[in-house]
């Protein structure tokens, strides 16, 4: 079970529409983000970080 749940306006998705779960995990665990070059909108992380 998750310890916390955050509601965000948008999830990081690739150009093919897949959710980038690895990057969500990196954010949740406070790790440095890996490759974000395949994201549709790299600015989505700003809203997630504030969330």
Secondary structure layout:
Blueprint: H1 21-28, H2 44-50
Walk me through the structure.
- It comes from Nocardia gamkensis.
- InterPro entries: AMP-bd_C_sf (IPR045851).
- This is Acetyl-coenzyme A synthetase.
- One of its GO terms (molecular function) is acetate-CoA ligase activity.
- It is a single chain.
- With 51 residues, the protein is an all-alpha fold.
- The protein has one domain (1-51).
- Helices cover 29% and strands 0% of the residues.
- The chain is built from two helices and no strands.
- The protein has helices at residues 21-28, 44-50.
- The protein is globular, with a radius of gyration of 11 Å.
- The two termini are 20 Å apart.
Short description:
It comes from Nocardia gamkensis. 29% of the residues lie in helices and 0% in strands.
């Amino acid at each position: 079970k998750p310890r916390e749940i955050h509601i965000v306006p948008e999830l990081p998705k690739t150009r093919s529409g897949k959710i980038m779960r690895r990057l969500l995990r990196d954010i949740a665990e406070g790790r440095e983000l890996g490759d974000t070059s395949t994201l549709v909108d790299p600015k989505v992380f700003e809203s997630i970080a504030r969330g």
